[in-house]
Design goal:
The protein is 65% helix and 7% strand. The protein has 564 residues and is α/β, with parallel strands linked by helices. It has a 5-stranded mixed sheet, with helices on both faces.
């Protein structure tokens, strides 16, 4: 089929070029027979080409343009762009491409049937995978050795799909289906994915699955950084539902007691406005109203307390994220592990007190204990960060004053800049960027020892400082987001073939750009590469022209009388 497509495309482009040449020669006075002989085509073929170029039910200027080589190239790009954007970026199927061609009017010039577009889609996916593989090999040649962190997780379609990516560049290293998700399977798949790359995995970030722990710590001999989100999620599951239920129940109690208090007051008013009162002592309205008011005040106090507990639980969950940094986000100074441990202990103590006051059930307290057990691993990650940072900086062999400035000012400033970029609140972003600028400002002065170094040395220092700032990875949200994207593609197509999965991986790595215009592959390898789509145009060819459609026969009525 691939060979047939090549012939079709070549004939179609050559046909346009020869038709233009034939029209020019016949306009110069040459006969049709003579022109056909010079071009190496049959005269009947040339006549058929001329009829086809003028028989389309479209404006003559458009038909004339499509008949030119430039028009064929434009049509080629439009059809491939529709296939690429709709099926590989939008997650829709081939039938949507067919509908686009019909509605846009391009179906007059190119086959829009499901069969022709399905063949084109298969060729497109195969070409995407091939181009990405070639570019990966080319970029890996001469690649500078790197120490990287790998974020890993599984997703299910329902087949097990192993996904691993490098979080700084967002380059997908591994995305494939597997029989199981054991440590051995993970290790074998990742080693195969890293073959030919000058990459050393020194840290893995994931959830607390035992297989991933063994894969990272034993098989890769790397540090395992726990995902902070999973600890926060356990805190949320332990507190959010129960506290929300208490707030809702307390609000309901307030409504009931308020209604009873208002009813007692209304009853008293109705009694006082009666013209004739029944005999005997009047009802004890004051005592009833006071009792109802006391219940209302108690209910409102309980409702307020429940809301305060809910607010405190949310604040403590956010505080876990705010304190888990190697540098203090308020001062920019390094946080000793002992200080971080103390802040963690304070949060857990307040959560335990909250659980007692809110009378959380046993299973909720078990979740809090499970989240608290992550503390040791979280502190180990901070220790790993500072130890690796010092080793990288000492390898530069800098003067003591310069080394101190790099460790105490440059790296913290770059780290705060990265945290600011990931922050959601504008006030927090501006504050962190201002703090980063304050740390960098002294280093930019002409009299600072850093400025006396050679430009190449300063460039190397900045590169190492950036690597150190990127070293602290506390979340595998990047791979979780990728799993969510794959789930959307799977939901729309109900099945992802291995070729489709590989094509989606290639598009992610070599086509999708950030705001700065770089792809994940360019950030990972540190080198630019040729645009993916432009290479596809040279490899994937245009389908043939649409066949002539026969008029649809009229539908005969069922009660047509039979001839005698």
């Amino acid at each position: 089929m691939a060979l047939g497509q090549v012939v079709i495309c070549r004939n179609r482009l050559e046909r346009a070029e020869k038709l233009v040449a034939a029209e020019a020669r016949m306009s110069a006075g040459q006969t049709q027979r003579h022109v056909a002989e010079e071009l190496g085509v049959a005269r009947s073929t040339l006549q058929d080409w001329r009829r086809a170029s003028s028989a389309n039910a479209v404006p003559a200027a458009l038909a004339a343009f499509i008949a030119t080589p430039e028009g064929v190239r434009w049509l080629h790009r439009m059809v491939l762009a529709a296939q690429f954007a709709i099926t590989l970026r939008g997650g829709a199927g081939v039938r949507v491409v067919c509908e686009f061609l019909e509605l846009s009017g391009l179906s007059v010039f190119v086959g829009a049937s499901y069969g022709s577009q399905q063949a084109l889609n298969a060729a497109l996916e195969a070409a995407v995978v091939a181009v990405a593989g070639e570019q990966r090999v080319a970029l890996a040649e001469g690649m500078a050795p790197r120490q990287v962190t790998v974020c890993e997780d599984e997703t299910f379609h329902p087949e097990i799909c192993l996904v691993a990516l490098e979080p700084v560049s967002n380059f997908i290293l591994l995305e494939q289906y597997a029989e199981d998700r054991s440590a051995a399977t993970w290790t074998q798949a990742l080693n195969t994915a890293l073959a030919g790359l000058a990459v050393e995995v020194i840290q893995g970030t994931s959830d607390e699955a035992k297989a991933l722990h063994r894969h990272v710590e034993t098989d890769l001999d790397a540090h395992h950084s726990p995902d902070l989100f999973h600890g926060q999620h356990e805190v949320s599951k332990a507190t959010s539902l129960h506290l929300a239920r208490q707030v809702k129940q307390a609000a309901k109690t307030v409504a009931v007691t308020r209604a009873r208090w208002e009813a007692e007051r209304a009853t008293e008013q109705a009694y006082r406005h009666q013209l004739q009162h029944p005999r005997g002592r009047p009802p004890a309205f004051k005592r009833r109203i006071q009792a109802a008011l006391t219940d209302l005040v108690r209910a409102e106090a309980e409702h307020t307390q429940a809301q305060e507990l809910q607010t405190e639980a949310r604040a403590l969950k956010r505080e876990l994220g705010a304190l888990y940094h190697p540098y203090d986000l308020q001062t920019g100074q390094a946080q000793p592990v002992e200080r971080v441990a103390q802040r963690f202990e304070d949060v857990w103590r307040r959560l335990q007190r909250l659980a007692e006051v809110a009378d959380l059930p046993t299973r909720a307290r078990a979740r809090l204990a499970k989240a608290q057990r992550l503390t040791t691993r979280l502190l180990a990650t901070i220790t790993f960060f500072f130890a690796t940072l010092l080793a990288k900086v000492e390898a530069l062999d800098l003067p003591p004053g310069v080394e101190s400035a790099v460790v105490e000012q440059l790296i913290p400033a770059l780290y705060l800049e990265r945290v600011a970029a990931r922050s959601t609140g504008a006030e927090t972003r501006h504050r962190l960027r201002d703090l980063s600028t304050q740390l960098l400002e002294p280093l930019r002065q002409h009299d600072h020892p850093l400025q006396a170094l050679a430009p190449a040395v300063r460039e190397r220092i900045e590169q190492v400082a950036g690597e150190c700032a990127d070293l602290f990875q506390r979340s595998s949200s990047a791979v979780e987001g990728r799993n969510g994207q794959l789930a959307l593609y799977h939901h729309g197509r109900h099945r992802l073939s291995e070729r489709k999965l590989a094509a989606l991986t290639a598009v992610h790595n070599f086509h999708i750009c950030r705001a700065d215009g770089t792809t994940a592959a360019e950030r990972f390898f540190g080198r630019a590469h040729a645009p993916l789509f432009e290479q596809l145009i040279d490899r994937v060819h245009l389908p043939p022209r649409p066949r002539r459609r026969r008029p649809r026969p009229p539908k005969q009525p069922y009660l047509m009388p039979v001839a005698a």
